[in-house]
Amino acid sequence: MSESDHEYEYESFLKVAILIAKKAGNLINNAISSPDKQFISKSGETDIVTETDKAVEDLIRRELFSLFPDHEFIGEESEFEKGLTMIEDKPTWIVDPIDGTLNFVHCNHLTAVSIGLAINKKIVLGVIYAPMRQDMYTVISGKGAFKNGIPIHVSKVHDLNRAIITYEIWARSKDEHKEHQLKNLSILCSNVMAIRSYGSACMNLCLMAEGQVDIYIDTGIRVWDMVAGALIVQEAGGVVRHTDGSEFDAMSRSILVTSSPNLIKEIVDLKLSEPKVKRDHTDKITL
After folding, report:
1. Active-site positions?
2. What pLDDT does 268 receive?
3. In this structure, are 45 and 92 located in the same domain?
4. Which domain range does residue 169 map to?
């Protein structure tokens, strides 16, 4: 297959992902007004899974397999139950049906559907749709990042003391993890201009890509939280790394994104505390 064939195929895949994300978004918006949303606690986790999570993932899986029966699928709700299996080189859709589930429960507009595609263990395209805001973020590797069809770019902030950073603190996380977070929060407060917490990894990455924040750092999130958003940030001119400054790997459960290489160095030099978390898989998925 020629390079132009690949580009055509990626464009076709992206159009499909956009249409499916909109259908998923309609399901989410319809559920928002429902007075009887059902909540089920995820065992051992701090977030909530709703029946809508499952319904949205089922819709996305069904739509993708109807068009691409030979592709693979990794979804948050299904993989949480059985764990990740071997990652193959064939096209693999990686999906978070509702990122920011707690935001969704409280009708907070920072709620998103994330659909990413990896081929040969490389992220090639992605879609993040915030249905309550009706904002669609799209990306194809090497083609730039867009919000509602308009190109977006990271901020021009290069100095840590002028940076707004997004850093999530989970009130119900394990004590050990919480200790790391609070220690890091103290360090960051002394070195950055401001700290924000939005409750959605996908939206953190999108806000980063359009220049509303300058740094996003997180440890403990999952592959489906990062895949589409990481590529969106990179194509918007940002730098995407592991929290220690090494090459980004979506299976590592760790991400550091900044608007400039200098900010990567400044954050790494702070020697932030990092809790030990189990990888999502021994295989790597990279940009």
Report:
1. 76, 96, 98-99, 101, 225
2. 97
3. yes
4. 160-269
Q: Do 112 and 230 share a structural domain?
A: no
pLDDT digits (tens, 9 = 90+) for 108-151: 999 999 999 999 999 999 999 999 999 999 999 999 999 999 99
Task: Tell me if 277 is assigned to some domain.
Answer: no
280 labeled binding residue: no
The answer on 109 and 9 residing in a single domain is yes
How far apart are alpha carbons 124 and 238 in whole angstroms? Answer: 16
Question: Cα(95)–Cα(39) distance, rounded to whole angstroms?
Answer: 20
Task: Using alpha carbons, list the distances in angstroms from residue 4 to 11, 267, 280.
Answer: 11, 39, 33
CATH of residue 138's domain is: 3.30.540.10
Is residue 96 a known part of a binding site? yes
99 is in an annotated binding site: yes
Q: What is the mean pLDDT of the chain?
A: 90
Quote the number of domains for the chain.
Answer: 2
Closest alpha carbon to 67 in 18, 19, 117, 16: 16
pLDDT, tens digit (0-9, with 9 covering 90-100), for 213-227:
999 999 989 999 999
